[in-house]
Amino acid sequence: MGVGIEKCCCFIPLRLGTFLIALWFTIIYLLDVATGFLGINGAIIYSGQATSAWYYIDLLFTVLICFGGVVGMFGSCFSSRKFAKTFSVVVWINCTLSMLKYVTCLALMISHRYDISRSCLRSGFIGFSNFQTSITPAIIPNSPYYSPIRYPGTLNANATSQDDCEASIKSFLITYGIVFFIIQVLQFYFATVVSAYASRLRNGARHHRLHDQQIKDFEESRYHMSTISTVY
After folding, report:
1. Can you say whether residue 160 is alpha, beta or left, with left for phi > 0 and alpha for psi between -120 and 50 degrees?
2. Where do the TM regions start and end (predicted)?
3. Burial of 51 by CB count in 10 Å (0-12 exposed, 13-18 middle, 19+ buried)?
4. Smaller CB count within 10 Å for the chain: N or C?
């Protein structure tokens, strides 16, 4: 994989491109896990409400992807063949974990959309100004006349209407689906770039070994010829 790629994004050298890709995996997924812990990442919290086990699995996947990025940064900084080769494997694992994380989160949120709307009705939609750390679905009366009263400093402080919740959830799911589809496509391209860089380092090492062997053979042949000349 990655054969024939000479530049990342057509103009960035492969080594620098590999470093930037590793930095991408490190920073993006570090922010992802941090916002998950802080309770401002709607995808992690809402998908975790469907099944609490997924909440912890999701965070674990994110941490592993972030760690893989750190490995890639070391490999590209020091032009280490071992690190680059390791990262070329890790980056494909990262892409697989990221795809699994993305598809599972989206499927859980769509299949449990009603539970999300009930949580939103009680506590408002999750965001930077409305963090929520509870991964337990809201249990509120299933009545068309129910409307939570806002109390500052409580879960109901950002309560909103059913219509607003439905609109927010719909916009969020559409945006999440589009943005992360684009990210997945980019990451699979990034994986081919890293593979190309690892292949270049591996092939370069072979060429160096071949060059050294050629010098050794040449010196031996010179010594052999000089010996013959002396005899004559």
Report:
1. beta
2. 21-47, 53-75, 87-110, 173-199
3. middle
4. C
Return the DSSP state at 112.
Answer: T
Say how far apart CA 15 and CA 118 lie, in whole Å. Answer: 49
40-63 pLDDT, tens digit each:
888 888 888 878 888 888 888 888
Global pTM value: 0.72
- Compute, in degrees rounded to 10, the torsion defined by CA atoms 217, 222, 224, 230: -170
Coil, strand or helix at 130: strand
CA dist., res. 47 & res. 31, Å (int) = 18
| Residue 116 and residue 169 in contact, taking contact as beta carbons nearer than 8 Å | yes
Comparing CA positions, the residue from 71, 65, 68, 60 lying closest to residue 36 is 60
